[in-house]
Write a structure and sequence with these properties.
The chain has about 120 residues and is mainly alpha-helical. About 75% of the residues lie in helices and about 0% in strands.
């Protein structure tokens, strides 16, 4: 991952506000790590590789429960189908209501239906 483009060498101070790795720290790291990363970058106290490694550690920690759930679903493929079917049913209900609103807004279907029925 590209870091601060102005930071060419390890001894060059950087700007975490333009570094995508720092943005990832904002998502996955603790406030303490965020402060460590910002200060270390600005003072050249840490290198980009060290910063990336710390961010990756936090990302792996954050994603661990998701991976565990994935393994459980992998063991029970029938449950995956059940979850998909349940979600599809809910989505169809929402979509049906949404499409009724869209048709009314675009075509004025209720008005058209009453006009057709009265003819």
């Amino acid at each position: 991952m590209v870091t601060d483009p102005a930071r060419k060498r390890r001894i060059d101070p950087g700007n975490p506000d333009v570094c995508p790795v720092y943005d990832w720290h904002k998502l996955f790291s603790s406030p303490e790590t965020l402060a460590w990363s910002a200060a270390g970058c600005r003072t050249a106290g840490i290198g980009c590789i060290e910063c990336k490694a710390k961010m990756a550690d936090h990302l792996i920690e954050w994603i661990a429960p998701i991976r565990e759930r994935r393994v459980e679903y992998e063991k029970r493929p029938a449950r995956v189908i059940e979850v998909i079917d349940e979600g599809s049913k809910k989505a169809r209900e929402v979509a049906k209501a949404t499409m009724e609103c869209v048709r009314e807004a675009v075509f004025g279907w209720q008005k058209k239906r009453s006009e057709v029925r009265n003819v």
